[in-house]
Amino acid sequence: MELMEELERYQPWNEQEERDRAEILRRLKSGEELYGRENLSAHLTSSAWVVSPDRQRVLLAYHNLYDSWAWLGGHADGERDLLAVALRETREESGLEAVRPVSERVYSVEILTVDGHEKRGVYVPSHLHLNVTYLLEGDPASPVRCRPEENSRVGWFALADAPAVSSEPWMRERIYRKLNAKLSAFPPMNLQ
């Protein structure tokens, strides 16, 4: 399904999602190029909220740029299948190979601000990440590893602890807590 169609069908969880969804749709409908980083003011990204089958743990990485524990994800970089981006980025950033979508539908939407920074010696101006999040599932017993150019640690956290380990107030209070609250719609897998 095309992203625009999926976002039009998406039922926002709260006012933040409703307003962010409307802005992402407005930009997509305008024909603005959003799938690549050439658009310096805003581009599409895809994130993953990776949970254990029992829905009691969340996989996070210690992100070097943000100096904080964070979800996994990255830029679309021309890819139009944002679920594929979330799966790829999860595998690349965590080393977790056995990861699958709990649902192929969009789990959450958000527009995130990114401050200007240096990346590989080149200045990247402040911009927006028009983000689509997917709910993925992985096994906490499977091996994980960091990706040194992006993160310094990867680990599983108790669901209730995951927001608290983030040092980014907006992400902690408005995004990660929301993602955890939405899990009630996705019951745990039968582990027997």
* SS strand fraction: 25-35%
Supply the CATH superfamily name: Nucleoside Triphosphate Pyrophosphohydrolase
| Number of domain units | 1
CA radius of gyration is: 16 Å
Mean pLDDT: 93
- DSSP E strands, number: 10
The name CATH uses for the topology is: Nucleoside Triphosphate Pyrophosphohydrolase
Order of helices and strands: HHEEEEHEEEEEEHH
Biggest beta sheet summary:
8 strands, mixed
CATH class: Alpha Beta
What count of helical segments does DSSP give? Answer: 5
Distance between the termini: 34 Å
Low-confidence stretches: none
Q: Judging by the overall fold, what is the CATH architecture?
A: Alpha-Beta Complex
State the helicity in percent bands. Answer: 25-40%
Shape: globular
Structural class: alpha+beta
Characterize this entry briefly.
The protein contains 5 helices and 10 strands; from the N terminus they run H-H-E-E-E-E-H-E-E-E-E-E-E-H-H. It is of the alpha+beta class.
Overview of the structural elements:
The chain is α+β, with helices and mostly antiparallel strands. The chain has a single domain (3-185), classed as Alpha-Beta Complex (Nucleoside Triphosphate Pyrophosphohydrolase), CATH 3.90.79.10. Helix content is 27%, strand content 31%. It has helices spanning 3-9, 15-29, 82-94, 162-165, 169-181, and strands at residues 42-51, 57-63, 68-70, 72-75, 99-101, 108-114, 117-119, 122-124, 127-138, 151-158. Strands 1, 2, 3, 4, 5, 6, 9 and 10 form an eight-stranded mixed beta sheet that branches. It has a two-stranded antiparallel sheet with strand order 7-8. Strand 2 (57-63) and strand 3 (68-70) form a beta hairpin. The longest helix is centred in the first third of the chain and has 15 residues, at 15-29. 31% of the residues are buried. The model has no long low-confidence stretch (mean pLDDT 93).
